[in-house]
Amino acid sequence: MKRALFLLSSCSIALAGFTVVAETETASLECRKTTTFLAPIDSPDYRKYAPDREVQVLHLALDVTPDFKERTVAGKATIQFKPMIKPVREIRLDSVDLSVESVTSTERVQNFQVTEDNIIVTFVDEIPPNKEASVTVAYHAEPTQGLYFRTPEMGYKDGDTHLFTQGEEIEARHWYPCFDSPNEKFTSEITCRIPKGMTSISNGRLVSEEKDSATGLMVFHWSQEKPHANYLISLCAGYFKKIEDKFRDIPIAFYTPASEINEAQTSFRDTKDMLTFFEKEIGVPYPWAKYSQVCVNDFVEGGMENTSCTTLTDNTLFTDATENIRNSEGLISHEMAHQWFGDFVTCKDWSQIWLNESFATYYETLYNEHKNGRDSMLYELYGRARQITGITNDVNAIVRRNYDNSHDMFSYLAYPKGGWVLHMLRSQLGDDMYRRCIKTYLERHQYGNVVTDDLRSVIEELTGRSFDQFFDQWLYHGRQPQLDVTYSWDENTKLAKVTIRQTQKVDENVVLFNFPLTIRFKGKSGSTDKQINVKEKEEDFYFPLESAPEIVRLDPEYTLLARTTFRVSTPMLYAQLADKADSMGRLLAIEQLADKKDKETVGKLKKTLNDDAFYGVRIEAARALRSIHIDEALDALLASTKQSDARVRHEMIGDIADFYADTTYKSALDTLEKEKNPDISATAIRGLGGYARPEVHDTLIKFLNSESYRNELAVSAIGGMRSQDDPVYIAPLLENLSKHQDVYTSRGYAQGINAVAYLARNEEKKDAVRKFLVDHVNDKKKTVQRAAISALGTLGDPEAIAVLQTFASASRETPERSAAERAIADLRAGRKPVDDFKNLRQELLELQKANRELRKDLDTLKKTTEAKAGTAPADKGKKKGSTSKK
Description:
The protein is α+β, with helices and mostly antiparallel strands and 886 residues long. Helices cover 37% and strands 22% of the residues. A hairpin with a 4-residue loop joins β1 and β2 (72-83).
């Protein structure tokens, strides 16, 4: 599963590992770290383990009839099973909010009971080990999780009506009874009954499609004939259109809601190439009957790797007008890699989720290298490393059992950090041995469950080497090395000295690391690599060389995840920046040069921005100039806007907007006049928000009411209005949002809701905005609903508390209840929004003025008092004509 809330853009990875563009539909976040509360250490719930398997599930058959208008589902679930070791008289099925109509079985049923979390079936007699039996549960439900409807009654487009399911981690139990744990694998089939004109997509192969003469419904029968985990069961049904192809004799298809089929090809186009690459790289043929990808409206994740039929967010769709700024490559390759890592071989429990997600993340990176070259792959790793090492308050290990709930395990640890661990592993093993180990690991555990030691044991078996320490320090302990490195040259002895200190805090959570490291010395006599092993807290290393090197590069092939401080001389940085053969060296040189403020450095970065062959280096040069933030840096940016690569152009427009000057304002206007790429135009629109000029008002209103794909230019105008922080925008924004909700995405509309509340927060009369927000607190689109609830807190109107209290008093914890609780707390505390920079600055100025006036009054009072007492010291010790300063 890809924890990407929105489309991963290929142009910008370095800030935090993944693109984050404020207040746009192109924002991306692959993983999220949540604040949780662990059970006490002396509680049995402190550590989590896979549940016992008293029975082996053999097969699951679902027969479901959804009601799209009522958003309900009626179904029958038949589960075939056999007791494993001991006789069984009772089974417990996971089930939440299912209305059970009947329970029947091939064995005699004594009784069944429905609890909050289970359906407990008690048999008259014990079922002996290995005897096959089945239970059938007839039920109906109105799911709030697990199965999601998208209908016109909810505000979605007429003609795009559909539903989708989401199983991971434990949502399947909300729409059918099951054994809902990844350590249970079985075959499955789904029969889906839907109105004529609709289609369905599910796991495996389509056995039949026919009309039921009794009901007039179309009956789709899908069969998944190889075992998989319960959370991978999927059903999508509704008005979909598709494009299709074949990979060898395997059908491949890409579905979208009917109105969005024109954008399908841009996301589907690399599918066949990815399958070809993965089969060759992994060494194991694609293991399933077909591969379908289904885009759905407001998917709850970025993507989900259901067996043979991945579900994707519709935010991955884009038009060719964005050039190379957007692509679906990362998301599509990530979910496809899961068909091997996660589906074919599945983690035993959620403590081992890295075996699913880290592999998918790393093979996404390997495909990037295959398609776009090694520099692109290294740039991706560089961005992810900066994200990982930038998190300084987390000492959790990748593999651990002390988590609060399974959702906690889907963090950056399971995605980019685990991917980096695999990159280090591949680097130490070598490409060929790594491939051999992975192929053996998959074949040995095919269609089964795995734990981390299964991977380690295969590697040790095939290499003869111990990998206990590698797995212990990188997977079972937290963090990564924090290195402070210094270099010096002794001309007399012709020795280069490199001192390496590990400065991370070492305790029971974080170890002193032991790792191989290459140091490359480049000079007039050529290039030489020196191999060392770092294992001490501080070590000095000496290297005899013919002459002083011009460049010293740590880890030149980029195979170590570490937070490294290695300051070298400016001439060395300039030489490194000019090294055309070393893109990583140029990136690292730019990182240090961004701290300098001199004109020569600005000139070097300007040249790099215009001449470097790799787009990622040009992007980082632009960012460095923005960071330097002197007039010459702005001039360099403005003189370098003619970039053929849209990703660099896009970056530069945002960087220029971070300067406040007439030239940057004119640059934004020039961009809007000439630029045809809508993503770049959107960035320029947002950049205008920093300028309080009458013509900016007119421009923002114009784009607010413009038409664009997914209304993205209007959303950018909303971002600009929010930056303006001028209540004059409240009325036009309210009018636009009230009339045109149907043209916004859910996220775009939510941004509009938040903006109008923010703009009105200091107004005396808030009735119109409050009414608008209250009208949306029961919106059927959850994103919009939560935005409206949160916005009532932003608005700061105490009259909203009564409405919010109805959500805050809900008995079950929900995102809506949490949003309402936070909003009420804000209102009752009278707390102003933390991002109210404009008013905070004004208040600070007023306080400073009042303080100066008070000090002046005190000084006057003091002098007056002293004068009356005859003790004024004004002339005491003071020479004629002198002045004093404070």
